[in-house]
Amino acid sequence: MLVWQQNASLKSFNTFGMEVKADWLVLIQDSSDLHELIRDERWQKMPRIILGGGSNVLFTQDFVGVVAILQTKGIAVLEENDEEVLVEVESGEIWHEWVMHCIEKGWGGLENLSLIPGSVGASPMQNIGAYGVEIKDVFVSLNAMHVVTGVECVFTHEQCAFGYRESVFKRAEKDRWIIKSVVFKLSKNPILKMEYGDIQKRLAERNIVHPGIADISEAVCTIRQSKLPDPKVLGNAGSFFKNPVIQKVLYQNLLSQYPTMPHYPVNAEYVKVPAGWLIEQAGWKGKKWETCAVHDRQALVLVNHAHAKGNEIWDLSSAIVADILEKFQIELEREVNVY
User: Fold this and answer.
1) Residue 111: active-site member
2) CA pair distance 42, 106, nearest whole angstrom
3) Residues in the chain with pLDDT values less than 50
4) Of 48, 165, 202, 334, which residue is the catalytic one?
5) Which of 88, 111, 173, 335 is catalytic?
6) What domains appear along the chain, each with residue ranges and CATH number?
7) What's this model's pTM, rounded to 2 decimal places?
8) Is 318 a known active-site residue?
9) What pLDDT does residue 269 have?
10) pLDDT of 58-81, one tens digit each?
11) Which residue in the list 55, 123, 181, 239 is annotated as catalytic?
12) What is the rounded distance in angstroms from the CA atom of residue 273 to the CA atom of residue 126?
């Protein structure tokens, strides 16, 4: 039976550490409880959101409605052979713990996504990615329940319509489904991706010539820890902005003014530009704004320094968006979900 908490604090359920409240808070620890949740009159009639780790959300005010926290656990092997393994993972599993489970089992494919905050259920929603790997590379399907009818449905890779940090669940199907579990296909003989970021540099420092998935994971963790603040110490939601995709024509025009401007080819017409580079070039890295700031080691990250309000962080992000648009003619898009 579900336990409902009225006028409940959400501070421990969002990594920004926003001191906001929800009219109603309910913790889902067993997927069978979802049917009870959906039948409840409060869920049916009030605004509602589902949270996992709360690592990709910014609350700018109290939430007038129901907040459900998915804490379901479970990892089950569905199929396995000498080459690969098919695994179903419950949505409430902590993402990094799941990646470490894969490392321990020798299942490759997720090592580049080590130390990303959040839950397994949230990972396909925004097609999380890092160091040359995205969820779509190992995703098979997910099981979801409709938030109103309770009808359960399997979404295939194609139906999820993955894009850069997005999926159908951030567009046409936004707020319509509760993701119950995700199925991954992982390799027992993985092809390692080491060409992104400082992975090769980190491996060289440790004199590792023939790395395995554990070595890649350790390198990624070390790199992330050197650049990104721990949300348990300094409130943040990881990368606040997406890396913008711009036309090559605009990039070429900007290159004459900024000859060191990095880019990554997308196709014949578009390139991706690091948002962190743009923000740093514009002078925002380390800049304080009321009780929040741009992190001094990673310009993509906005941090809560001292009991910041959500609208202060929103205002900071808006000032950055406006400045980057003025200086580079590039409009940054926020990666976090704002309520």
Assistant:
1) no
2) 44
3) none
4) 165
5) 335
6) 4-70 (3.30.43.10), 75-187 (3.30.465.10), 235-338 (3.90.78.10)
7) 0.90
8) no
9) 95
10) 999 999 999 999 999 999 999 999
11) 239
12) 19
